[in-house]
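Re: magnesium ion structure - here you go.
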Amino acid sequence: MTENDYLYTVSNLDSDIQYLPGVGPKRAALIKAELGVSTMGDLLRVYPFRYIDRSRIWNIAEIAGEEAYVQIRARVVSRTLYGPNGAVIPPGDKKLQYAVKRLSVIVEDASGQMELVFFKGFKWNYAKLVPDSVFVFFGKPSAFNGRLNMVHPEIDAPLPEGSDLQSGLTGVYPSTEKLQSGGVTGKVMCKMQSAALALCLPETRETLPEYVLSENALCGLAYAIKNIHFPADQYALQKATRRLKFEELFLLQLSLLKQKFIRSHGGPGLVMAKVGDAFNSLYGSLPFQLTEAQKRVIREIFEDMRSGHQMNRLLQGDVGSGKTMVAVLSALLAVDNGYQACIMAPTEVLARQHFANISKYLRPTGVRCAILTGSSTAKERRELHAGLEDGSIGIIVGTHALIEDNVVFKALGLAIIDEQHRFGVDQRAKLWAKGPGCAPHVLVMTATPIPRTLAMTVYGDLDVSIIDELPPGRKPVKTAIMSEGKIASVYAFMRKQIALGRQVFVVYPLIFESEKTDLANLQLGYEDIVKHFPQPDYRVAIVHGQQTNEVKNFNMDAFVSGRADILVSTTVIEVGVDVPNASVMVIESAQRFGLSQLHQLRGRVGRGADESYCVLVHDYKTGKEARARLELMCRTSDGFEIAEEDMKMRGPGDLEGTAQSGMPVNLSIASLARDGLMLAEARAYATRILEADPALQDPRNALLARELRKSKYDIKDYSKIS
Ligand code: ADP
Ligand code: MG
């Protein structure tokens, strides 16, 4: 069949699921609303997330009551209807039928007895479960008062003696409460999949070229789809899973990498090939040795800047790993080659802090550095604008004010964006337009360590550099968990530290959905602290997002400059703020924060020479899992380890960094937490293909080009940085 014939064929894959037997428009609408699925082809791409093994019949005597699922073959002994308070209701009593609360059925096999319990469907189940009849029951067992029971088991006709068991593995599909109550149960879902499969399998078209299948030892799509829904056996399921995971990861990486290839093979970049005086004079006068990781990253950046292609690089490094130094050295490379550099921070406080640090570093180089923020005065701006235009300012630090229209550079060659500050399309265009006829190189820095697999995906279209080493001699922050009830001892500890001349952060959660309650908690917490730390002995400042910038800056300054001993705040202080004298970080309702966020917050202390502390205060109600997460924080200070764990515990969707930057697609079968190896394999393979055929124009890659045009992988607008 040619492509044209195909167009004229009525396609089942594209047919609405309402035409599947037993579905209809109402259920179809429900499924669409709940699962986002409307065609049969879409439906077949909703895979089971778990399988139940029905290849085994248990003896009742060997069931402990803790198994996830068991299947028994048993004879009905008796059945009883119960009303309120355990009163037995005679089955024939028409008047009392409405009062039935429970149907209890005792069944037995050769090894023992167990009870089946029903809280609905009394009439139907009572009629069906006639004493002495034999069925196969399937469900989750539990032990109650030493008696085994099973609530609402699935009931199937007994298998003929000596026949093979029902096909071993039954898929369990993603579901929602609405689907269940709308009658789309697991069983119905299986039936729908089976019907869709029968209609669509003959027209399923392969999505991967033959050579990709054979080079990666993958099974064909039709086989995979069939066996992911109805596995012939464990082995077939494994093959199907591997194929579908690989397909998903590979096409996603292919799409991301293709954009990267187009850019680096097509987009011209400013050539900065010289290492000159400015770079060397700072390098030669550093008060410390760069770490190996810093040196490696600077080499990677330099390679990009001299390559003739535009750099689009993400620099990841834990708090305190020395990213600023890397940024300054990169900026000096630009200056040495006759260009300017800008360093953009998300807030004014951070911009000022950067400016102070950077100016200090730049002293031996003689390079002029300036700062531009929303509160720069008109006079300052005039001077700045002139300096940028005539090129006398080599490096400018600032906030968003930098991308305003009236800021004109003589030759902007490098834009450094701190703390994963992402741009909208117009802002990006504005910054690009400031380059000298060609987009500047771009370096984005983030202190949120994210797992490698996630970095390859969320930032799959960027090059990623990682500083995975802290400067020597850093003391880890001593971390403890405290329950709310012990806050008095936390206060006592804070007093001791303040008496030693140190400062204390107290952070409250502020989660969007519960903003009002959170702000109220912050206010209450603040009042409590003021009560326990009264003036004039103590000075307490408060900062949160509802304050005007003026108030925020004023209070923040009070703390940064040491006029306040305690800073009570929401997570607005999370990013970048540097107060070396702060030695204690108290985090209230710590159980509500993500691990990566706790890690970020903790990174705010331990920046000076003193011993520093982090106290994670949690509520009474904190569960076991949440406690385990907090305990991990006490065990390690490695941001990447914490991020990996966070992803394992909560899944990639909830990680900070992801929430802000977004996953380019929703993965339907592969998992970034579990399939890291396959992801690396798929990415390497995609790279090989693109190296030979960057635009996927080779006829043997036609299938791939077609897949990338499909909506799921068509993510060309995703790249938010360049
Ligand atoms: P980041 O921005 O990654 O959080 P910074 O660049 O602010 O980290 O560096 C934190 C501190 O470590 C700064 O005081 C900086 O001067 C210092 N520092 C940076 N690199 C080194 C190094 N190689 N050895 C010792 N100290 C370093
Ligand atoms: Mg920093």
